[in-house]
Amino acid sequence: MKNRRMLFASLIAQVVLGPASALSADTERIVPHLQRENLPGRQVKVAAICIGFGGDHARKLKLAIDHLHTAGRNGVDIACLPEEFAGTEAEPIPGRTTQAVARLARQYRMYIICPIREQAGDEQYNTAVLIDRQGQIVGRYRKVFVFWGEGLHCSRDGVKVLETDVGKIGILTCFDLNFPELWQQCEALDADVVFWPSAYSGGAPLNAYAILYHYYIVPVGVGNIIDITGQTVEDIERPRDQQFIATLDLDRCFVHLDFHREKVNKLLAEHGDKLQAEQVPPTSGTDPRAPWWLFRATKPGVRVRALLKKYGIETLHDYQKRSRRQINERRQKGERV
Questions:
Q1: Pairing status of strand 243-249 against strand 43-49
Q2: What pLDDT digit, counting tens, does each position of 176-198 carry?
Q3: Mean pLDDT over residues 270-278, rounded?
Q4: Each residue of 51-93: pLDDT tens digit?
Q5: N or C: where does the chain have the smaller number of CB atoms within 10 Å of the terminal CB?
Q6: CA–CA gap between residue 245 and residue 235 (Å, rounded)
Q7: CA distance to 35, 56, 113, 323, per residue, from 197 (Å)
C-alpha cells in the first residue's frame, strides 16, 4: 500500500512538474507536522514564499509548486505565495492556478494562500484565495485598496478574517499597507496572524501594526516575518532561496497592568513553573516600557490564555476591545466613565 501511495505521488508530480521534480519529491525527507499536544502554547508553522509578483504563468506556477513541495516537506501548516505570483491574466475561481495549487495543499495537508487575478463575471479583482488541507477553497480576500494603474475593481466585501484549524488569519494585500483602518479591522475580527502578499518588503509600518494590534504579520515580499512584539522574527528557517519558515506561538499574549497586578502575582506564584513573563510592566512612571506583561507557556499542553481566564485576567486585546465598546456606549448615553 505504501509503495502504491508513493507511485501515485510520483505520477502526480510528473504530470505537474516533470520527472526530475517527482524524483526529488519522493527521495527528500518529509518533516511531520508539529505535534501540538506535546508542545507548550499553540504553535503554527508558516512559510512566506517570496518569488515575486507577475511573470510568465507557466514558469512562475512551476516555481511556486517547487516551493510548495519544499514547504510541505518541511511540515508547514500555512504557506503564502505573493500577490499575483503567476502573472496578471485573469481567471475564475476555481481555475487553472488554484486547481494546481490545491493538489499540493491536499498532498501535504497544508493550507495555502494563493493570490491570483480573479475574473468574476465582468469584473476583475486582485484576490488571495485560501485553500485548506483537503485542497478545498474555503475563503478569499479581494484587495480593498487597489494600486493606481492596476486596472482592477476594488473589493466591496471589505476585510475578512478566515478560520483555520490553528487559528484565525487575516489577509491584506500590498497597497493595503497604507490604510490603518484595514489593519484595525483585522484586530477587531480577532486575527491571530495577518498575511500580507506583496511585491515589496513593507518596512516599519508592518512592525508598528504588529505591536499596535498584537498579532503576527507574515509579509510575502522579502520574508521579514514579524512578531507580536513588533520585532522581526530572528529564528527563521531558510530551506531554499526565497522561502522563509517560522514557527509562531499563537497562545502568547499581552496583559495590561490596569486592575491585574494582584491577579498576575497570584497566577505566577501558583503556576510560575508553567508559564513565563517574557516582558513585565515598568515599576515607575519614568520607565519607558509599555505597561504590559507578555506571557508564554513553557510546558507541553499548557495554554496561557486558559490560565488567564481561570484567574479572571483579560488579555490586552480583550481589555481594549471591551473598553472601546463600553466607553462608546456611555458616550452615546452622555454618561460619565
A1: antiparallel
A2: 999 999 999 999 999 999 999 99
A3: 97
A4: 999 999 999 999 999 999 999 999 999 999 999 999 999 999 9
A5: N
A6: 9
A7: 28, 18, 9, 32
Domain ranges of the chain: 1-30, 38-249, 253-333
Distance separating alpha carbons of residues 273 and 329, to the nearest angstrom: 40
Return the H-helix or E-strand segment holding 206: helix 204-213
Q: Classify strands 275-279 and 292-297 as parallel, antiparallel or unpaired.
A: antiparallel
CA proximity to 54, closest of 219, 198, 206: 198
**In the chain, what percentage of residues exceed pLDDT 90?**
88
Dihedral sign (CA 116, 223, 25, 8): negative
In CATH, the number for domain 38-249 is: 3.60.110.10
Taking residues 158-166, report their average pLDDT: 97
For the whole model, what pTM was predicted?
A: 0.90
Averaged pLDDT for residues 147-160: 97
- What nine digits make up the cell of 122? 465582468
Grid coordinates of 215:
498579532
Query: Angle formed by the axes of helices 57-73 and 2-17, to 10°?
Result: 150
Task: Yes or no: say if 251 and 304 are a contact pair by the CB < 8 Å rule.
Answer: yes
Query: Contact at 8 Å (CB) between 114 and 143?
Result: no
Give the pLDDT score at 70.
Answer: 98
Give CA 211 to chain center in angstroms: 15
pLDDT above 60: residue 10: no
Q: Which three cell numbers stand for residue 40?
A: 507548550
Give percent of the chain above pLDDT 70. 91
CB 198 within 8 A of CB 221: yes
Going 254 to 231 to 195 to 179, the CA torsion angle's sign is: positive
Looking up cell 506561538 gives 249
Tell me whether the omega of the peptide bond preceding residue 94 falls within 30 degrees of 0, making it cis. yes
For CA atoms 98, 104, 107, 112, give the dihedral sign. negative
